[in-house]
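Title: Comparing notes on inverse folding

I've been comparing how different people in this forum approach sequence design from structure. To keep things fair, I'm posting one structure and asking everyone to reply with a full sequence. Here's the target:
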């Protein structure tokens, strides 16, 4: 069965329910390979002998005092070339991503995006075969979005 793709704009709103985040404004970037999320206070910890990371998320761009503490199993550590051309090593987690009426697991790198307008960037790997992007539209993917 061929599954229809969800039409999304250059900016959208998503949920990361496993991290306790809802209504997060994100930037869609087909030029970026990986997805990234702005976090603070990243710490590597062990849970039952397995590597995890703990971190703080500021889900409200306009209220940096609002913080959600989160943790996730560590999926990987990889080198990523940032938008300014520098390479940095980042922790990678996998979490459930919800947009419109769809959800799927995505890998996200954790980094400092405090100098960026949007706290999360959805890259090509996170989009996979789930979406089509209309770069001229924004916030078209509401809860009742129809696939195309």
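Reply #1:
Here's my take.
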């Amino acid at each position: 069965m061929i599954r229809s793709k969800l039409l999304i704009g250059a900016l959208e709103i998503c949920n990361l329910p496993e991290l306790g985040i809802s209504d997060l404004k994100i930037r869609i970037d087909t030029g970026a390979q990986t997805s990234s999320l702005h976090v603070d206070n990243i710490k590597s910890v062990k849970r039952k002998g397995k590597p995890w990371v703990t971190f703080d998320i500021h889900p409200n761009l306009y209220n940096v005092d609002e913080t959600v503490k989160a943790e996730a199993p560590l999926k990987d550590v990889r080198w990523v070339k940032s938008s300014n051309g520098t390479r940095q090593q980042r922790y990678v987690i996998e979490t459930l991503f919800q947009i419109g009426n769809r959800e799927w697991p995505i890998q996200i790198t954790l980094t400092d995006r405090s100098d960026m307008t949007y706290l999360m960037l959805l890259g090509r790997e996170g989009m996979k075969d789930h979406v089509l992007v209309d770069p001229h539209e924004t916030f078209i993917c509401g809860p009742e979005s129809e696939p195309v």
